[in-house]
């Protein structure tokens, strides 16, 4: 297993960051064009959907822990069918660094121990897009 943590500070409250992580209209603007869907409770599925292309469900997994405004932990799975394989676990930790400033740490526990610069770049881009959206209201140039 390989663990990678990405940390940044966003000029927004933890509750505002939480909404950006959990609302489909928001995720579509920074999460590589994907809209998230879930019931946000342990055991619930989490699905990231795209409106482009023939495959509507681009990513899926299961919620392991959800504490609004504080922490979200979920798996991402590979494969389809009744028993897909776990690919990685994502932990989003949110904490108020000071009023109006949130420390966001995304930890990716990847089952593949080999470095993958493309995957790491994708997570860095998601975080950059989240920060840009919350601080400016705009999406990164290549985002829909």
What does the main sheet amount to? 7 strands, antiparallel
Mean pLDDT level:
88
Q: Helix and strand succession?
A: EHHEEEEEEH
* Strands, total number: 7
The helix tally amounts to: 3
Shape-level CATH architecture: 2-Layer Sandwich
What value does the Rg take, in angstroms? 15 Å
Quote the CATH topology.
Alpha-D-Glucose-1,6-Bisphosphate, Chain A, domain 4
Strand arrangement within the widest β-sheet reads 1-7-6-5-4-3-2
User: Which stretches are low in confidence, meaning pLDDT under 50 for 5 or more residues running?
Assistant: none
Description:
With 144 residues, the protein is α+β, with helices and mostly antiparallel strands. Helix content is 25%, strand content 42%. The protein has 3 helices and 7 strands; from the N terminus they run E-H-H-E-E-E-E-E-E-H. The protein has helices at residues 14-22, 24-30, 117-136, and strands spanning 2-10, 35-38, 45-49, 57-67, 71-78, 85-98, 101-110.
What is the strand and helix layout of this fold?
Layout: E1 2-10, H1 14-22, H2 24-30, E2 35-38, E3 45-49, E4 57-67, E5 71-78, E6 85-98, E7 101-110, H3 117-136
Antiparallel strand pairs: 1-7, 2-3, 3-4, 4-5, 5-6, 6-7
Helix pairs in contact: 1-2, 2-3
Concise summary:
This protein is α+β, with helices and mostly antiparallel strands. 25% of the residues lie in helices and 42% in strands. Helix 1 (14-22) crosses helix 2 (24-30) and helix 2 packs across helix 3.
């Amino acid at each position: 297993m390989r663990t990678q943590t990405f940390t940044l500070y966003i000029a927004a409250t933890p509750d505002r960051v939480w909404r950006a992580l959990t609302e489909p209209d928001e995720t579509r603007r920074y999460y590589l064009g994907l809209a998230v869907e879930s019931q946000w409770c342990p055991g619930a599925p989490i699905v990231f959907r795209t409106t482009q292309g023939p495959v509507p469900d681009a990513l899926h997994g299961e919620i392991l822990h959800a504490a609004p405004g504080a922490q979200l932990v979920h798996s991402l799975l590979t494969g389809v069918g009744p028993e897909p394989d776990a690919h990685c676990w994502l932990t989003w930790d949110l904490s108020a660094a000071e009023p109006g400033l949130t420390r966001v740490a995304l930890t990716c526990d990847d089952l593949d121990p080999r470095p993958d610069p493309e995957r790491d770049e994708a997570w860095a881009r998601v975080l950059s897009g989240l920060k840009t959206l919350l601080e400016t209201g705009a999406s990164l140039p290549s985002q829909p």
